[in-house]
Amino acid sequence: MRILVRTVTMAALCVGVAAPATAFAAVAPPSVTVAPASGPAGSDFTIRWGGFAGCGSVAFTWAGAPFVTGTSPAGVTGSGSVVATAPADAKPGTYAIAGTCTNPNGAKESGGSRFTVTVTTTTTTTPPPTTTTVPTQPVPTTTPPPATIPTRPTTTTPPASTTTTTTTTADTPTSSAPPSVTDEPKTNGGLTLDHSSVQPGDPLSASGTGCEPGHDVTLTSDGERVGTGRADSGGAFHAPVEFTKIEPGRHTITADCGVVLTGVVDQAVTSSANDYSSTLLVLVFFVLGGIVFVRFAY
Asked: Which keywords does this Swiss-Prot/TrEMBL entry list (predicted)?
């Protein structure tokens, strides 16, 4: 009986020691990094990847569009680096860079990072002025014979009068009328809204690209949630937008989907509802006044 208890105890210790060894053997998930992480449009940067099991090459996308393909060095699979160039027409902002591959087992692996396009500052250098020196030539000296010159009265011409005309431009009055609003989608920072202006109760939806594939999408405006969704395998999404309160004016909508996308929409409130309320209030006043008059007449 004592030998059996000792054997069971030794087996339990062996299992306890073997469990952490299995945890240390876990394979690290795929990862993608960029260096440097920011730069102007058209600048070069290096994309490094690792943890892609058995992948000889990894295809990368820029904001959901095909970008560049990196190949692992000879004898190495699952990791490597490639030099890429930010699109020359990219506007300042943060863009998602996603890498995907299919390993020999047929499984799809993916990882992502971000690159920020900065504003390009143009510096203009003024060249120094160029001075040309003309050589001085000697002037021949000629002595004319003496001549008798009659004396004439000297006439002084008064200086011409100069008239200065000052033109005063009146300040152009600023129109207080609101700018015209066209019902065209607005895009700002990668988020597209199907309407640029909405009335209370009008439907509104948002679309975006460049998100991390499969990432949850949260839409907020002025700190309040106005919609949710999920990005597909290409990093794109489409979700409805519903405002919890009506506040006339321009509102910024932010989509958090692994990267931050923004868009703007105008809330317009017509005055028909206020005019109707005022007319109804006047009508009720006259009805109540008529009832009081009839009561006092009797």
From this structure: Membrane, Signal, Transmembrane, Transmembrane helix
Query: 232: exposed, middle or buried (C-beta count within 10 Å: 0-12, 13-18, 19+)?
Result: middle
19: left (phi over 0), alpha (psi -120 to 50) or beta: alpha
Cα(128)–Cα(126) distance, integer angstroms = 7
The CATH number of the domain holding residue 92 is: 2.60.40.10
With H, G, I as helix, E, B as strand and everything else as coil, classify residue 244: coil
pTM attached to this predicted model? 0.36
298 vs 295: CA distance, rounded Å: 6
CA-closest candidate to residue 61, choices 106, 88, 11, 95: 95
* Chain centre to alpha carbon of residue 47: 22
Q: Is 107 exposed, middle or buried (0-12, 13-18, 19+ CB in 10 A)?
A: exposed
Q: What range defines the domain where residue 231 resides?
A: 186-267
Distance CA 82, CA 54 (A): 18
Provide the 10 A C-beta neighbour count for residue 67: 19
